[in-house]
Design brief:
This protein has 183 residues and is an alpha/beta fold. The protein contains 8 helices and 10 strands. The longest helix is centred in the middle third of the chain and has 14 residues, at 109-122. GO terms for molecular function: RNA binding; transcription antitermination factor activity, RNA binding. Regulates expression of the glpD operon. In the presence of glycerol 3-phosphate (G3P) causes antitermination of transcription of glpD at the inverted repeat of the leader region to enhance its transcription. Binds and stabilizes glpD leader mRNA.
Length: 183
């Protein structure tokens, strides 16, 4: 499973970035920061432009990070997929047929080991490894889980994207606009 060969998943922090993404030639896009009152129209805008929006559920202002919020997002907002650090959000996305992305902050060995246990339960479609500038960890997580990896966080240069892809990531998320067009 991949993003139809798309190596960059542009990530929007604001409406201006989202407007730029929906007018780009990239199909899959990520919405990071949003407000519950704007979600439905933002998802409709993306879909109307032929985009597949992955919504970071943990960063929706005005919405709790629980199973009920995830159900609301899946049933009423209907993005293409949900990204979350939360087990119940990922499981709910899977249950509703959305793309599920388990976001992992790999700060140390303890976080890595607890993430492996979490992944045994959630079995997401994709894992987003943060920070994405750790090629050897990207490689290890993919070898251990077999789940496609997306690298994200602290990716600032084209070289870092290439290193993540070479290590086994299928794509990289980045909010750096200058990197959106290079891949």
């Amino acid at each position: 499973m991949d993003f139809n060969g798309q190596k960059i998943l542009p990530a929007a922090h604001n409406l201006r970035d989202l407007e730029q993404m929906v007018n780009s030639n990239l199909t899959y896009i990520v919405l990071l920061n949003s407000h519950i009152g704007q979600l439905k129209s933002l998802v409709q805008l993306a879909k109307g432009k032929g985009k597949k929006l992955l919504l970071h559920a943990d960063l929706v202002q005005g919405l709790r990070n629980d199973e009920y919020a995830a159900q609301f997002l899946c049933q009423d907002i209907k993005p293409t997929g949900l990204i979350s650090t939360r087990k119940n959000v990922v499981l709910t996305a899977k249950k509703h047929g959305l793309i599920s992305v388990q976001r992992l902050f790999l700060l140390d060995s303890i976080a890595l080991e607890s993430s492996y246990k979490l992944l045994e339960t959630t079995k997401p479609d994709f894992i987003e490894v943060l920070p994405g500038v750790m090629p050897h960890i990207i490689n290890e997580v993919y070898k251990k889980t077999g789940i496609p990896i997306v690298a994200g966080g602290l990716i600032r240069e084209k070289r870092e994207i290439n290193e993540a892809i070479e290590a086994g990531a299928i794509a990289c998320t980045t909010s750096r606009k200058e990197l959106w067009k290079d891949f």
